[in-house]
Structure formats: C-alpha cells, structure tokens
Design a protein that fits this description.
Elements: E1 13-14, E2 19-20, E3 29-32, E4 41-45, H1 54-59, H2 64-68, H3 75-79, E5 88-92, H4 125-128, H5 151-180, E6 183-191, E7 203-206, H6 215-227, E8 232-234, H7 242-247, E9 254-262, H8 277-294, H9 297-301
Parallel strand pairs: 4-5, 4-6, 6-9, 7-8
Antiparallel strand pairs: 1-2, 3-5, 7-9
C-alpha cells in the first residue's frame, strides 16, 4: 500500500463534537508524523475514536453518553506529543462501539446478525462477553442495538475502517523496521478505575508475559512511569490484546507493548469531561515517549 494514498499527515478532528469535520469525515484514522523520524517508535490508539456514524445512532437503543463509555476517551490526545520525539502516532477516528479495532475481524457474535456470518470465532471469550469486533454491549454493559444487523453492514465496516487501519499500521511497522532495524509499537488504551477494585493501578503495561516485547522495552517504560510517580502493574488485569498478539514478534525485531491508563487520572468517568489531571498525564506520556526515543533502542534491539 502506498501510504500517501491514505492521506499521510495530520487529519484534524474536533474532540468536543464527537465527530470529524467535513474534510475528514470518511477518514478511518488520523496519522501524525514527525518532521523527522529519529526513533523506531509507532504509537497507536485504536479505541479513542469519537465519530459515531449515523447508521449506528439510528439503530441504537441507548444514549450517546452510554455509547461513549466504550471509548478510551482522549487517549489520542494524551499521546499526540510522541510525534515531537520522532515517533509516528496513529489514531482511529471511528468509535469503538461501532467497530473494535483491537479484535480479530472474525470475532463476531452470530446472534447479532440476520444471517450467520461465515468463519467466525463465536467461542471467543470476548465475543461471549459481548465485546467482539462489532460489540453487542457498551463499556457499562448496556445492549447497543434494537435490531439485528445485516452481514453487508458488518462487511462494510470491516472494509472501510478495519482493514485500512490495520494495513497502515502494518506498513508503518514495516517501514520503521526497515529504517531502524527494529520497530516498537506502543498500543495505547485507558481502563476504568474499577478495573481492579480499590487497588487498581495507575497504569498497566501488557507485553503478553514477555511474548510480544523485549523485556528491556517493558522495563524502561515501567521505570520511567514509576519515576514520574505512577503505580505500575504488568500484565494484570490486561496482558495485551489482538494488536499486541499479531504485531508483537520480538524474534523478527517487531515489539508491541500495550499501555492502559486509569481513566480517573485524567477525566470524570461519569461525564467524560477532562479533569485538571489531564494536562499532567499528557505531559508525562510525552516524557515516556522521550525516554523511549532517547534510549536508542534501535541499536540495542536490532
């Protein structure tokens, strides 16, 4: 794929309106590229999209605020500063409630459709929980749809959003590895403050228990975040999702590390409004990117 055909550069969205402006309405992602790529880093945010297509709003049985509780709200903004430290930053623009990019495309619930989709992983734990590639429920457990969907709707979402997003992510990692000898993907998410009850950490790093990322990368990220004052856990309760699973290939010099940020650190989980903590977390995520960039990881991992 020629990345220039996908509109490389900055596609700007309006974070307050829950949708993209007219010029970028159909763009399935926003790609921010640094003026100079000087680090083998790609940051990705698959769940921070705030565009709710009309077909979703017309078929849902719940309010927009309930739909939005599925978002990793504003995570794209928290990590946008990584571009200043030589990293590419890729963010989805379409809401997770419409299509979950951190799932296998075959993780579909057959009961959601008028006809049974072919070749689906309906036994997947995520599908069983209602959180497949096309989610059945929201982050707060409410059923999304008041009708069954057609298979044509599912295929349209996969063709116009899912595949372009994953194609450009794969190309970014391939280009990065070709330039630096290795590539490091940081897959960026947020988690409810109730993820581990009263003892929920501030940040969870997931490297699939060492299978998706070189331990030195995970250790550096953890040390940096602890130095910044965060309580950090590894692989519990989140060890990494579909993105880290398919892209994390340390033996092939492609490393994938998932990061989950406790939402209570930067937003009101009821209203989804940013709090005073937002500026601090955003600055610290930029510092994390700076630390990873400065470590010259392409020399030690390649």
């Amino acid at each position: 794929m020629d990345l220039s055909e996908q509109g490389r550069g900055v596609l700007r969205t309006d974070p307050e309106q829950g949708c993209a402006d007219d010029a970028t309405l159909e763009a399935p992602f926003v790609l921010i590229e640094p003026l100079r790529r000087n680090a083998p880093l790609v940051f990705a945010s698959p769940h921070s999209g705030r565009r709710y297509p009309p077909e979703l709003l017309a078929s849902t049985r719940i309010s927009l605020i309930s739909l939005r509780r599925s978002e990793d709200a504003y995570v794209d903004e928290l990590f946008a500063g990584a571009a200043a430290h030589g990293a590419a930053v890729l963010s989805a623009t379409v809401a997770r409630a419409y299509l979950d990019l951190n799932r296998d495309a075959t993780e579909l619930d057959p009961d959601m459709f008028e006809e049974r989709p072919p070749h689906v992983m309906s036994s997947s734990a995520r599908v069983q929980a209602g959180l497949g590639a096309i989610p059945r429920i929201t982050g707060d457990g409410q059923s999304i749809y008041r009708r069954k969907l057609s298979l044509a709707e599912a295929e349209r979402r996969l063709a116009t959003i899912y595949r372009p997003y994953h194609a450009i992510l794969a190309d970014l990692l391939m280009e990065t590895r070709a330039q630096f000898g290795c590539a490091i993907l940081v897959d960026c998410h947020s988690m409810p403050s109730s993820a581990r009850g009263a003892h929920s950490p501030d940040i969870v790093l997931g490297d699939r228990f060492g299978a998706s990322c070189h331990p030195s990368v995970t250790a550096l990220a953890e040390a940096t975040l602890r130095r910044l004052g965060y309580r950090v856990a590894r692989n519990s309760p989140f060890a990494g999702g579909h993105t880290t699973q398919i892209h994390g290939r340390p033996a092939q010099q492609t490393h994938a590390l998932q990061i989950e940020i406790n939402r209570a650190l930067y937003l009101d989980e009821r209203t989804l409004e940013r709090t005073q903590g937002f500026a601090r977390v955003r600055a610290d995520m930029s510092r994390l990117a700076e630390a990873l960039s400065a470590a010259m990881l392409h020399e030690s991992l390649a």
